[in-house]
Amino acid sequence: MTTSGPKTQELLEASRKYEPDCMNWQAPVVWDHAAGAEIWDVDGKHYIDWTSGVLVANVGHAHPLLAQALAGQASRLLNTFDFPTPERLRLAERIVKATPAHLDKVVFLTTGSEAMDASMRLAKRYTGKYEIVSFWGGFHGRTFGPMSLSGIPKIRRSYGPLVPGTILAPYPYCYRCPFDRAHPGCDLFCLKFLDETVRVQSSGSLAAVMVEPYQGTAGFVFPPPGYLKGLEAWAKAQGILFILDEVQSSFGRTGKMWALEHEGLEPDVLVLGKGIGSGAPVAALVTRSSIISCLERGEMSSTLGGNPLSSAGALAVFDIIEKEGLVGKAAKNGAYLKAKLLALKDKYKRIGDVRGLGLVYGIELVLDRATKAPAPDLARDVVLRCVDRGLMVGKLGLHGNVIRVAPPLVITPGLIDRSVGILDEVLAESR
Ligand SMILES: Cc1ncc(COP(=O)(O)O)c(C=O)c1O
Q: Helices 86-98 and 308-323: crossing angle, nearest 10°?
């Protein structure tokens, strides 16, 4: 359905020729350049961005200060391996000062998966135990360790045997509660069930629990208030590490700098990625000295982790977020966007649920509100029609039926009006 220009068609042909199908599943668009919350493809067609790449471009695409920082650094120094650099040290200091006071040490890595993998290794070394509890619907990356902890069947399927010692428990996906209960009347039954699941399954070697503040890949599933604090208390009571995967929820995405602020969480290990570099490849594991001192010198390193280029980029991201007040903007413009999405929910019966915070929302499409039967084909159709009309959007979710709304934090109310207008037109046609 999407009408592609000639250059796009030519490049998509090259993609089919040289790239495997497993890489290609997005709408058929070849990006050329982007600025702020807008994108242009290789044929000059314009799009409003609801993807931020994949929740990466928090400060907006091609921000001039980020571009300058990267260019300046590239002409000075690109790699030192583990030798410290002023950029890496300034970034470490900035992260330690900006995160909760008990976190005082940072290890830099290159991707979210690598950092999540490092958090698993740390938990095992620190506790001397090997079992890690994670959640149905969870996603922590595609390398083998995090993949083994994923609760998304299609991520794990056909890759077994996976890393041993994983215990999966239900996440509070309230719209589709696995226990058919409703919050707050449920009294967070899922937490009691978690305790029982672990009691039954654990061989007595529990090291950690790993959780996302909201589940991204599962369809932007947000836990009810009190769940994460309750989980943290449970982890403390078990004497295990509480690992919080903020790879996609940090750097202002939820209308706070860190999603942990919504409930005052104090994780033992906090993992950051995506928005930290807003395009510069960097991830970070943040923890306490008393935990990470269990590792020997040189035991946690990475060829490109904390390289000067990425560090300079991440420092620029901090500057931009502060100077432009992007966390406040994400909260304010996010509330404006949410009100508009909820109005669409009132208008279209195919929208079963709208959920989110700040500038991250999931719109869950269903065939029928009463049965909640997922509508993945409709979601695919809506995505393609939106892209055709100039709204860059994707879908995700355990059932492939959730429209992903995660624009760069610089999106303006004017662009919000225009983009929601496009979705409105498309939904009107799909009734
Ligand atoms: C919550 C979460 N953790 C980890 C990752 C893995 O990050 P990366 O793709 O940078 O390896 C992702 C990526 O989508 C994510 O959403």
A: 40
User: What is the whole-number distance in angstroms between the Cα of residue 180 and the centre of ligand 1?
Assistant: 29
Cα dihedral 112, 117, 119, 122 sign: negative
Q: Evaluate whether 354 touches 362 at the Cβ level (below 8 Å).
A: yes
DSSP 403: E
261: left (phi over 0), alpha (psi -120 to 50) or beta: alpha
Phi-psi region of 362 (alpha: psi -120 to 50; beta: other; left: phi over 0): beta
State the average pLDDT over residues 164-190.
97
**Cis before residue 161, ω within 30 degrees of 0?**
yes
pLDDT digits (tens, 9 = 90+) for 7-50: 999 999 999 999 999 988 889 999 999 999 999 999 999 999 99
Position 1 confidence tier, pLDDT thresholds 50, 70, 90:
low
Query: pLDDT averaged over the chain?
Result: 97
From 334, 371, 328, select the one nearest 354 (Cα to Cα). 334
Beta bridge partners of 392: 49
Q: Considering only CA atoms, which residue is closest to atom 8 of ligand 1?
A: 112
Q: Candidates 117, 272, 274, 278: which one to mutate for ligand 1, based on the most atoms within 8 Å of Cβ?
A: 274
| Structure token pair of residue 329 | 């903007």
Residue pLDDT, tens place only, 322-336:
999 999 999 999 999
Atom of ligand 1 nearest to the CA of 217: 16
Closest residue by Cα to residue 56 from 73, 84, 74, 31: 31
- d(CA 134, ligand 1 centre) in Å: 15
What string of DSSP letters covers 102-127? T--EEEEESSHHHHHHHHHHHHHHHH
